[in-house]
Amino acid sequence: MAHAQNPNRRKAGGPNDAGLVQRIRETLLLFGGEAHRNEVIAQVARERGLDVRHIPPDLEREVIGSFERACRDEAQRTALGFHLKFGEGSHRWAVRAEA
Asked: pLDDT digit string (tens) for 21-53?
């Protein structure tokens, strides 16, 4: 059975993704250059006027996915200064301020 397409759903890696990775970068810099991903997600939710006690799973997936896509793309990762503080699989996100 075919599934109907949701016209409001954003494609991963689209133009909104670029804005979100910049927001993630700014948030990490706000937190001194590193933070647990849950803190970053909560800050993005707060900025969108959401209750951080009940963050929508879609927003959580969107933030995590944006960061992970940026990290997989070497040029983007270098330009943004993103890195995983404790290596692959780490939930401690970091940014180099000089990027």
From this structure: 999 999 999 999 999 999 999 999 999 999 999
pTM of the entire structure?
0.80
Return all residues near 52 (Cβ < 8 A) that are at least 6 apart.
Answer: 42, 45, 46
Give the Cα separation of 4 and 90 in Å (integer).
36
Is residue 4 a part of any domain in this protein? no
Please check whether residue 29 lies inside any domain of the structure: yes
Domain count for the chain: 1
Read off the pLDDT of residues 74-95 as tens digits, 9 standing for 90 and up: 999 999 999 998 888 899 999 9
Give domain status of residue 56, yes or no. Answer: yes
